[in-house]
């Protein structure tokens, strides 16, 4: 793999140009790169933006989505569960669509910070016990994240798709929203309680380290 380090100044965003032949050109290193290179740049926290070389349109989102598609296509690399993908698709055109991006961004940021704290706390534990506890905590976090996603569903279940028989109409959905509000509040309070319990467990494990 080509070197993904770029001569851009620290904190400076790297400009990537995408040409009609689908080739990607890194203007910082003056070299052509691939999606694999861009994936490594993301993992190295190198900020970049991708522009269409002809229209100068910002196409960073579509390129990052393509990277995810490529990663998901590789055997053993999948991160996104089928049910999560179905629910995510269900949010397109949904009344909660505008709120979901910020929620996902904050949730993943919190998840990342928590895992970093756990890695620091478990450094003093022996390798095998530490790995066991860490894996169990990851499973709990993923289960918690899945519950949080379901909380945003109008009925607390996977979304019915408009093309499916029995899918709720817009009128039915709007009529159900007021009744669903108390349930959403209760789920949110339960989610906060679970997070507090998880943080207490982490602090307890850290004190024994």
How many domain modules?
Answer: 2
- N-C termini distance: 39 Å
What percentage of residues falls in helices of 4 or more residues?
Answer: 55-70%
Which strand order does the major sheet show?
A: 3-2-1-4
| Structural category | alpha+beta
Rg estimate, integer Å = 21 Å
Nearest-integer average pLDDT: 73
Poorly predicted residue ranges: 1-5, 153-171, 173-178
What would you call the shape? globular
- The count of helical stretches stands at 6
Beta-strand level of the residues, as a percent range? 5-15%
Along the chain, the helix and strand elements come as: EEEHEHHHHH
Let me know the largest β-sheet. 4 strands, mixed
Describe this entry's structure for a reader.
By secondary structure, the protein is of the alpha+beta class. The protein folds into 2 domains: 14-73, MutS, DNA mismatch repair protein, domain I (3-Layer(aba) Sandwich), CATH 3.40.1170; 82-208. It has 6 helices and 4 strands. A 4-stranded mixed beta sheet has the order 3-2-1-4. Strand 1 (14-18) and strand 2 (24-26) form a beta hairpin. The longest helix is centred in the last third of the chain and has 39 residues, at 170-208. It is globular and about 50 Å long. The two termini are 39 Å apart. The model is unreliable at 1-5, 153-171 and 173-178 (pLDDT under 50).
List key phrases describing it:
209 residues; alpha+beta; MutS, DNA mismatch repair protein, domain I; 4-stranded mixed β-sheet; disordered N terminus
């Amino acid at each position: 793999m080509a070197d993904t380090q770029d001569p851009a100044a620290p904190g400076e965003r790297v400009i990537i140009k995408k040409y009609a032949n689908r080739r990607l050109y890194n203007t910082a290193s003056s070299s052509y790169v691939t999606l694999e290179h861009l994936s490594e740049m993301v993992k190295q926290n190198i900020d970049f933006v991708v522009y269409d070389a002809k229209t100068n349109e910002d196409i960073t989102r579509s390129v990052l989505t393509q990277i995810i598609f490529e990663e998901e296509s590789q055997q053993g690399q999948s991160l996104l569960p089928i049910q999560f993908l179905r629910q995510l698709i269900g949010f397109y055109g949904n009344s909660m669509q505008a709120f979901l991006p910020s929620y996902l961004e904050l949730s993943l940021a919190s998840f990342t910070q928590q895992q970093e704290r756990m890695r620091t706390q478990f450094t003093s534990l022996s390798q095998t016990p530490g790995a066991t506890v860490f894996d169990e905590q990851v499973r709990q976090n993923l289960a918690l994240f899945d519950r949080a996603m379901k909380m945003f569903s109008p009925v607390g279940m996977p979304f019915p798709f408009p093309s499916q028989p029995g899918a709720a109409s817009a009128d039915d959905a709007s009529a159900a929203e007021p009744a669903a509000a108390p349930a959403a509040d209760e789920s949110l309070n339960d989610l906060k309680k679970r997070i507090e319990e998880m943080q207490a467990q982490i602090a307890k494990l850290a004190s024994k380290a």
